[in-house]
Amino acid sequence: METYKKPPLSYTEQVALLQSRGMSVSDIPRAERLLANISYYRISAYMLPYKKKENGTIIDNFKEGTTWDMVYDLYVFDRKLRLLVFDAIERLEIAVRTQIIYQLSHKYGSHWQDNPSIFKAPERRVLRDGSIVTFDVYAEIQKHISDQLHSNRAEVFIQHYRNKYDNPVNPPSWMSVEIMYFNHLSRICTGLKNRADINGIAGYFGLPPKTFCSWLHTMNYVRNLCAHHARLWNRDMSIVPEKLHFSKNLVWISNPDTVQRGKAYYFFCMLGYLLQTANPTSSFKDRLKALVNEYKSVAPLSAMGFAEGWENEKIWK
Q1: Which residues contact 116 (CB under 8 A, 6 or more apart)?
Q2: Closest by alpha carbon to 227, among 216, 219, 236?
Q3: Phi/psi of residue 116, each to 5°?
Q4: Residue 275, Cβ neighbours under 10 Å: how many?
Q5: How far apart are CA 77 and CA 87, in angstroms?
Q6: Rounded to whole angstroms, how far apart are CA atoms 104 and 198?
Q7: CA atoms of 236 and 261, how far apart (whole Å)
Q8: Is the pLDDT of residue 98 over 80?
Q9: Which comes out higher in pLDDT, residue 157 or 14?
């Protein structure tokens, strides 16, 4: 183990360091200005495909012909990709939220979220470090609703309910679920006790229940990546979605076994699949193809799990 001794560098020194390692910087003031707004550490992740290797290990020096613009363009591609993906997830989140509210309220009434009998019993789990935690979906959403009732002053409908009604204490599901986060939607679906309850919601999106819950979990993970401006390009997914083998009614990948589920491409396919129901006129597919084509010279598709001829799949047509 070593002691970290690297000193902070000025923007001018950062550019000089890149030049000393073989990167061509044609407009130094522009590069310094961009580093002042992006940070060297963040953009350094996009330098990796342009660095040399020795004995299979990436070193600091850049390959011949590497320019600052190539690295910055890759960064811009990833930023645009996040915005595109985040927009698609937003549409799907609203659709999932709507189906949860609609289907469960017609089965169990307006305040189903306050009915503990429809949720699984609290579950104790042992984590890798040996600690024990309790997963209680019902208690979690009740606490969130209570917190929102006392702190959320931005939503007029919440204040209206509090000012007009005192029984039940919580607003109806179509209000309560609207103030939940995406991870609550995922937890509700995995926490429902009766299989028939999740069957209807998952079936609306053309998925088996287990696959639907897995995809929701992955969507929440990627949504958080996008919301925190984390890198999508060349990322290995920490939460890998379950494989969908085939679809009866919607268009899916012709050979799912050949696609890496831990890469971004499989997630893009998931979005394309779900949008067939949630937003059939979505331009997501066309926008993704256009973005990939625009930056194909700086964004290697294989790093995201794209295979040769991917655009010929029916799901992208």
Answers
A1: 138
A2: 219
A3: -65, -20
A4: 21
A5: 15
A6: 9
A7: 9
A8: yes
A9: 14
Phi and psi at residue 172, in whole multiples of 5°?
Answer: -65, 170
Contact 266, 232 (CB under 8 A): no
Helix (H, G, I), strand (E, B) or coil at 116: helix
Q: Domain locations in the chain? A: 11-66, 75-316
In DSSP terms, 263 is beta-bridged to none
Are 193 and 131 within 8 A, CB to CB? no
Cα–Cα dist 139/120, whole Å: 11
Tokens, residue 58? 């990436």
SS3 category, 89: helix
User: Who contacts 315 (Cβ-Cβ below 8 Å, separation ≥6)?
Assistant: 251, 252, 253, 269, 272, 273, 285
The pLDDT tens digits of the residues spanning 202-233 come to 999 999 999 999 999 999 999 999 999 999 99
- Does the bond joining 122 to the residue before it have cis omega, within 30 degrees of 0? no
Q: Are 114 and 168 in contact (CB under 8 A)?
A: yes
Chain center to CA of 31: 30
Residue-wise burial string across 117-128, b where 16 or more C-beta atoms lie within 10 A, e elsewhere: ebbeeeeeeeee
CA distance 32 to 179: 42
- Among 87, 46, 76, CA closest to 287: 87
pLDDT at 152 over 70: no
Q: What per-residue confidence (pLDDT) applies to 116?
A: 95
Record the tokens describing residue 114, joined without a space: 């306050």
Determine the 3-state secondary structure of 171 from DSSP.
coil
Alpha helices in the chain (DSSP H): 11-20, 28-38, 40-44, 68-108, 137-151, 156-164, 173-176, 182-191, 195-204, 209-227, 264-278, 284-294
Cα gap 183→200, rounded to integer Å: 20
The 3-state DSSP class for residue 123 equals: strand
Between CA 214 and CA 224, with CA 218 as vertex, the angle to 5 degrees is 150
Residue count of the chain: 317
